[in-house]
Write a structure and sequence with these properties.
The protein is mainly alpha-helical. It has helices at about 5-15, 20-40, 45-55, 60-85, 85-105, 110-125, 130-140, 150-180, 180-185, 185-200, 215-220, 225-245, 250-270, 275-280, 285-315, 320-340, 345-365, 370-400, 405-430, 440-460, 465, 525-545, 555-560, 570-575, 615-620, 635-645, 665-675, 685-690, and strands spanning about 510-515, 545-555, 600-605, 625-630, 650-660, 680. Strands 3-2-1-4-5-6 form a 6-stranded parallel beta sheet, sandwiched between helices. Helix 26 links the parallel strand 4 and strand 5. Helix 4 runs antiparallel to helix 5 (about 85-105), helix 8 packs across helix 18 and helix 12 runs antiparallel to helix 13. The chain is elongated, with a radius of gyration of 27 Å.
Length: about 700
């Protein structure tokens, strides 16, 4: 073995043993903490900013809202850019914007400059979380990990949610000791550290394909019109929400005028920025977004609404109110990581809903004469809510989001959270519109009880979460020979195997593109995007030195005549004289047309090898590993997989390279049938396995 090969093999083994070393995770944690800390640290600086700039304290609220607005728009945008241009690259761009925002804010001489600084900080910090999720997902695929990396997701959860609670104390110390400008300037040393770590430790992005470079190409790949439409719609919606209870009709009109054409455009787009059809079909992901929004509405209502009540109605000082809520952040931080390590979803989400209900009832029982310990208890309960919802929903997101869209999905996850946060502020302004009082607090509690009930229903009635193994996309270990195996799931909870996948040897691997022919491709949901993904996978396998095989279904007159009456499926094909071998409908889609040296076979039944010499051709080339892509999941893919497994091939199925006219059947097969006989990966995971070969 050559030295280079030995080094590559050593690196691959090292990745499999420690895919998430501290050098990889630390910059992700630091980056993910920037947005929540900047969201909350400004609270203690608003009064001194107003005094020095000679504006009202109310006017400084724009410094809070501008960051939320920028973040709500920028999070999914950054996720899409990370998917297309590379997560490390977008992460670094974001860090640079935060650094610039810190400089502009630290040197700002008026409220306009500070607002610009907050927008820059909001956009820049928004890159960290979706980029982190893309990097984590890709690293897990490269290492062959089938389970969500719970410990890493727990660290992201702590960085994202728990650090928001320590923002006000940090801000108080900074502003008190060095002045309000350090609420901005603190970003400079932190971003310098984050940039140094990212440059040193995060894996470099692949070199961009020249065929996909250039502004117009990139704009098309990221769906720039969709992003701009989403930004306009979201901006108008947030302005409308923040104006309540006063109705800002202009903002509402702009929202409708921007949203309607955007939705129409996205529904027509092959690979849209906001995949409405995909979200409608992926109920698990949609419910995750709703749960996150509703639960954060409750958590932030406590952080903001109860703080106002404690100061204005109960008589606590600002410092005292902050200290009483500090246990919420502490409990959230302490519980997040151990919960995440177990990769549980349903249990934490039920705990989140139940504790939200209990805490909301507790709010309804508080009065301006309640002892401080009662307020602390409510804070502790909502700390459990915060930890369990962040962990449960984040793991559900990891499992439910399409692997190639994890960046955009993660950004939208945060956007829905911001909508919940903004709505909490709106509700607080409504219930306290006549003054901060016990009655207003109790009204807030009633609203939160309703939100908690909605979260509970979204959880307990979610059939995907009731399954033994919801949203499973990976291999499940066989524990029948060892009933005491540590992989055995806890009763009532799902568990996903952490077994590593075997490596791929490209020279002994064939990718089979099955039934991608003109008459069948249009039957697949989102067919154009499917073909583009398979086209990319074919290019990756070719570049690595693997074999490409094409399978099409087509009949001659003799084939029709030979179909017996006992064959239920193909009797109709023969009777209707369908799929003649010379028809255009049976020709392979020209976008993935075969090249010289590829295997091409014609079949007359479901399975790729049942009526062809495919197995012999593969054997002659020394192929022992198959990667399956095809239409449909319940037809050629299922039949070929079963046959290949019986012939002792090592089989991989591309989860985003197969499709079925019936999405429910597709999902059942991918989740519950294929993992017992094959390794279920996506095109990104295939690229990683080929790259590590």
């Amino acid at each position: 073995m050559s030295t280079g090969a030995a080094q590559a093999d050593s690196a691959t083994n090292g990745l499999a043993r420690r895919p998430f070393a501290w050098t990889f995770t630390t910059p992700l944690y630091v980056g993910s903490s920037l947005n929540p800390i900047n969201s909350s640290i400004i609270a203690t600086a608003l009064v001194p900013i107003a005094a020095e700039l000679h504006v009202s304290v109310g006017a400084t609220a724009v410094l809070v809202s501008s960051l939320y607005l920028a973040s709500a728009v920028a999070q999914p945008t950054a996720g899409k850019l990370a998917e297309v241009l590379g997560p490390r690259r977008i992460f670094l761009y974001g860090v640079v914007l935060v650094l610039l925002g810190g400089l502009v804010g630290g040197l700002g001489q008026n409220l306009a400059m500070l607002t610009v600084a907050r927008v820059l900080v909001g956009i820049g910090t928004s890159a960290a979380f979706p980029c982190a999720m893309v990097l984590i997902r890709r690293r897990a695929e490269e290492a062959g990990l089938d389970a969500p990396p719970g410990g890493v997701l727990g660290g992201i959860a702590i960085a994202g949610m728990a650090t928001a609670a320590v923002g006000p104390p940090i801000g108080g110390l900074l502003v008190g000791a060095a002045g309000w400008r350090w609420a901005f300037l603190i970003n400079i040393p932190v971003t310098a550290i984050a940039m140094a770590m990212a440059l040193r430790w995060l894996p470099k992005d692949p070199v961009p394909d020249h065929g996909h470079s250039g502004f117009r190409k990139v704009a098309d790949r990221i769906d720039l019109p969709g992003i701009l439409g989403f930004a306009g719609s979201m901006t108008a919606l947030v302005i409308f929400l923040m104006s309540l209870p006063h109705v800002e009709w202009i903002a509402l009109a702009v929202f409708v005028l921007a949203a309607v054409p955007t939705v129409v455009w996205e529904l027509r787009k092959t690979a849209p920025f906001f995949d409405f059809r995909g979200l409608a079909a992926n109920g698990a992901l949609a419910r995750t977004y709703l749960r996150q929004a509703l639960t954060l509405l409750g958590v932030y209502s406590v952080m903001y609404g109860m703080t106002q009540w404690m100061e204005a109605a109960h008589g606590f000082s600002t410092v005292g109110a902050g200290l009483l809520l500090l246990p919420m952040g502490a409990v959230s931080a302490l519980l997040s990581r151990p919960l995440a390590r177990r990769n549980l979803v349903r249990g934490p989400l039920i705990a989140s809903a139940v504790t939200m209900l209990l805490g909301s009832v507790g709010i309804m029982l508080l009065t301006s004469h309640s002892p401080a310990i009662a307020i602390v208890l409510v804070s502790l309960i909502f700390g459990i809510t915060s930890a369990s919802t962040t962990v449960g929903n984040q793991t559900a997101l990891y499992l439910a989001a399409p692997p190639d869209q994890i960046g955009t999905a993660s950004g939208l996850f945060r956007t829905f959270g911001y909508l919940g946060t903004i709505t909490s502020a709106v509700i607080g302004s409504i219930v306290f519109r006549d003054g901060v009082s016990d009655h207003g607090l109790h009204t807030l509690g009633i609203v939160l009880v309703a939100a908690g009930l909605a979260v509970l229903l979204l959880t307990v009635l979610d059939r995907r979460l009731m399954d033994r193994d919801p949203n499973r996309q990976a291999d499940t270990p066989d524990t029948s020979q060892n009933p005491k195996s540590p992989q055995t799931p806890h009763q009532g909870e799902s568990s996903v195997s952490t077994a590593t996948r075997p490596s791929i040897t490209p020279e002994r691997t064939a990718l089979l593109a099955m039934d991608f022919q003109n008459g069948i491709v249009p039957l697949a949901p989102d067919a154009d995007a499917l073909v583009e993904r398979v086209k990319g996978a074919i290019a990756d396998v070719r570049a690595a030195g693997g074999t490409i095989g094409y399978v099409r279904v087509a009949f001659t007159e003799n084939d029709w005549a030979a179909v017996p009456e006992t064959n239920k499926a193909f009797t109709a094909v023969a009777a209707g004289k369908m799929l003649h071998h010379e028809d255009t409908a049976t020709q392979i889609d020209e976008r993935i047309a075969p090249e010289h040296g590829d295997i091409v076979v014609r079949k007359i039944r479901y399975g790729s090898a049942s009526t062809t010499d495919l197995h012999q051709q593969l054997t002659d080339r020394g192929i022992d590993t198959l990667v399956l892509a095809g239409i449909s999941t319940s037809g050629v893919v299922l039949s070929t997989l079963m046959d290949a497994a019986d012939r002792d091939y090592r089989v991989y199925v591309l989860s985003d390279g197969i499709a079925d006219p019936d999405p429910r059947t597709h999902q059942v097969l991918v989740d519950n049938v294929f993992p017992s006989r094959a390794h279920v990966i996506d095109t990104t995971g295939l690229r990683g396995l080929l790259g590590s070969a």
